[in-house]
Amino acid sequence: AIVITEQPVSVSVPVGYSFTLRCRAEGRTSLQYQWFCQHQSVCCQIPGATKQDLPITAQQTQLYTCRINDLYKNAVFSDWVKVEVHQCVARGLPPRLWRGEPVIVLNPTEQRVEVGKPLQLQCAAMGVPAPSYQWYRNGNLLEHQKKKKLWITHAKVSDSGTYLCCASNSHGEHWTSAVDIHIGETLPPAEHLQLCHLVFPSATGKIALLVGNNRYQHHPNLMAPVTDVFELSLLLEQLGFQVVSLLD
Known about the structure:
GO terms for molecular function: cysteine-type endopeptidase activity. By secondary structure, the chain is mainly beta.
């Protein structure tokens, strides 16, 4: 009659990050603990890992479980948990005072996909515990897309739109960048070339619209947009564009 009262939890952390996996159980006699890890289908006992807490310094992605047994040779295993280790993290992440809130380390990318072809979008986030994921298209929740990878086997025109993903855990949430996905028929090379000849000679002028937003309702005021719009205006005018600049 061994009852696990606290299961270990999966985490997603940068390489070199130190943390602790915890397991707690209750039984009629004193209990003994033994941790195991699995990497690339090879499972092995961790020498000396015989306490409730397992300190880890993340080096590679592995699975972990804890075996608890009593003096009567009864034994139970905890849930398997994943320690996902990110080898390449953008400079400055995570912050020094990181407490495990989600931090996006991989954003999806814009794509153009032919009708009937597979569509795959991918993101990744660090977090303690490991974040859960939810994808959205045009602001609408996609009920069955709850993994790091969004997969549509046969893309339809109706799958076009703006996609983004929310990574969340008990400490908060973080959103990926929004990306535009275009689903449509691809013109044969000859027809594409003919279309280019029809369209581009008819263009008589080049107009650039620049919009710089400084003030946001839920974000501190920004300073860079003013400078960015000014610099880009000069550059585009040198390239022959008629420039319209707007602020806020």
